[in-house]
Amino acid sequence: MKKIQLLNIATTIITGIFFTLQANATIWRVNNRSNYNGSTLYGENFGGSPAYPVFAQINQAVAFGIVNNGDTLHVEGSTTIYDFAIITKQLVIIGTGYLLTDNPHTSSTALETRISRIFFNAGSGSSQLIGVSIISAGNVADAIVYVNVNGVVVKRCRIDIGVEFGGGVVDIYICHFCTTYRNNIQ
Fold it and tell me: 66 CB contacts (<8 Å, ≥6 apart)?
């Protein structure tokens, strides 16, 4: 009987710690039509404030001091391709999805989240990329997800050229369509 009570108490404590850690994560908005400039404007045209800006680019969110490991970036759909992003924090990056005109009633808008390329570099281990289109904006390095850290998850994304892995990375989970994979392990 004491073993069952002890097990119940331990389970309750572990569950409480897990939910406490999850409760501290913040959701941030990224919209490339935002007037965010980091000093006087914080995306006021999209409801941003100095405490909770609406970033114009993913790199601005990554560089912002109070965007922490474990936070989520909701990257909104747009007619304009987002600049390439360099991720140096553990983040969950969520886009609007793709093929939205082929799948009616899945989104309030048919605008995809389109990024030219994305790098997962030191500090971004265990990040997730969900529901974005990685497409070319005219540079030969575009349309590729570059994974240089362990534990990255890429799912439900459309990637026009491929995924390139750095040397020695492990535990990468990729689940999507329309992609080739390149491995430049030296």
Answer: 26
